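Duplicate of earlier report; tRNA (cytidine/uridine-2'-O-)-methyltransferase TrmJ input re-posted below.
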Amino acid sequence: MLSNIRIVLVQTYHPGNIGASARAMKTMGLSDLVLVNPRQFPDPEASRLAAGAEDLVANARVVASHEEAVSDCVQVVGASARLRSLPLPHFDEPDEMARELVEQARHDPVALVFGRERFGLTNDEIRCCSHQVSIPANPDYGILNLSQAVQVLAHELFTAWRRRPESGYRSALPTQERQPTREQLGHFQAHLSRVMQRSGFINQPHARTEAQLESLFARAQPSRRELSLLRGLLASLESHLPDS
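Output:
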């Protein structure tokens, strides 16, 4: 599905923006990059700023016109910082655009088109699109770098995709550390009790204090590694205590 979503950059001026856009795409699972008449490409700056997405830069297709870039697409959304007085549907929110584009991408290619750094897409290029979308931003300063705009909308697309039941997406979770056995917890509690008594923290076995500490460590649920660290701390303290 994500492989059917194409990012089109029209007449990009700075080659570094091509690389940064490729990086933004790859972090969001997109891989189809088409360049319309870039000023300078290929270029080492594009590869340098790709920072791990050099494969997208290397596989980017260069075409001569906007029409050629999207000719096989069933839906084409033009990203524009300003509304145009054109009879073209406009997505009020990027997430609406993303859900619609992802749905269309189930079966056919779709495209998200970005214009030049300085003045975006021309009216004629917007007319070649089926829809428009803008990124809501600070009305006093709503200027985004090209790659930033790609990142924002690519994230919306990825979010819309991963929320679909058929995506099978699973967040990467930290490896769960093993929990200590009841025997290991018992040895720790006995060790703690011994150090408390030898240090003078308690003068005699004190059931209430020990029960409160047991409850504290039960809530904390230390891992085996953490329990071993605590045992090492107790052993170090114990070695500095006078013999009873």
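The chain has two domains: 5-163, 182-239.

Merging into the original ticket.
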